[in-house]
Amino acid sequence: METLRNIKIGDTVRVESVGGEGALRQHFLDMGLIPGAEVTLVKYAPMGDPMELRLHGYELTLRLADAEQIGVCPVASKKEAVKKEHRHKKSDHPGLGEGGRFHAKDDGVPLEKGTVMKFALVGNQNSGKTTLFNRLTGSKQHVGNFPGVTVDRKDGAIKGHPDTLITDLPGIYSMSPYSSEEIVSRNFVLNEKPHAIINIVDVTNIERNLYLTMQLLEMNIPMVVALNMMDELTSNGGTIDINQMERRLGVPVVPISAAKNKGIEELVEHAIHIAYYQERPVRYDFCAKNENGGAVHRCLHSISHLIEDHAESVDMPIRFVTSKVIENDKLVIDKLGLDQNELETVEHIVSQMEKERGLDRSSAIA
Ligand code: GDP
Ligand code: MG
Fold this sequence. Notes:
Layout: E1 12-18, H1 22-30, E2 38-44, E3 51-55, E4 58-62, H2 64-67, E5 70-74, H3 78-85, E6 117-123, H4 129-137, E7 142-145, E8 152-158, E9 161-168, H5 180-191, E10 196-202, H6 206-217, E11 223-228, H7 230-235, H8 242-249, E12 253-255, H9 264-276, H10 295-313, H11 318-326, H12 330-336, H13 340-357, H14 361-365
Parallel strand pairs: 6-9, 6-10, 10-11, 11-12
Antiparallel strand pairs: 1-2, 1-5, 2-3, 3-4, 7-8, 8-9
The structure holds guanosine-5'-diphosphate and magnesium ion.
Guanosine-5'-diphosphate is lined by residues 123, 125-131, 171, 228-229, 231-232, 257-260.
């Protein structure tokens, strides 16, 4: 099979297979190299390695050795591209195992007066996190390291709100444990249980950034999306339908420009509101009934029913752990303490899904 390494500048191809193993393979998928994705080779770096690709509307640099692991084929006809769009139809769900129950206790119950509200600032690299963090905290910052790793940690109170503490987390593309940055950010969200997440999204790179947003929604923690770099988008003639975005994501969305100091007050207002009232995302289920009869959807729900007692007993968000169990994430599987019989049941359900969906487990989830 032809690989991504051998295509020519200007060529557009379709990803057919994704090689590599374990965390590396998951990393490829998280970067958007998913079977079916269309990729264009833009250019090579001056020394000929890495290559710069364009996919899903963003640029990705990839080492040649990695490109060799990606099998590609010529792009198919227009007809097939149209068919793909019809995949995104909403579907109904049974009520069990879908949140609400798991967090019903504290859902919508305000925090006790005087609680220091903890916020996590989460986003892709270069999305403007540090610029926003500096706007929010001013000069009062505490700088240190995350324990055990040389990854910077910065905390501070939001200006004018001494009862808040916001942490600038390392920039990440996904919640998979590939790099030490990803592990630090993921563990922070899972273990330190911030009262709310401020998810900063680079609006000029929106499709790539929303991959992480979707994973953060699965954490079932109150969240506000800060759409940053709006100044750049609008000066290029772009617009965003904020209301529709809020409806579809089920969380507040606030357009801002961290660099130009625009929209920051409104962002703070929303962040404090959702944290204080513990307003969780309205939905974190984005299953689509596709032409395979919703194979992924049925797999997710079967497994979430099977493991929800485990998730509850270790206090981890059910939807997140379900996705990770399907991806065979050993860290999560060990933490859940599933027994042999349950592991085998999971394996049967996932194998069935792979067969029906025609994709391996990680590709199907990505
Ligand atoms: P981080 O990697 O997420 O911490 O991102 P930084 O805060 O370091 O910002 C990355 C780059 O984006 C810097 O050059 C910033 O000046 C720029 N930047 C941040 N916010 C904005 C914004 O709202 N508009 C524009 N045009 N540039 C921004
Ligand atoms: Mg930064």
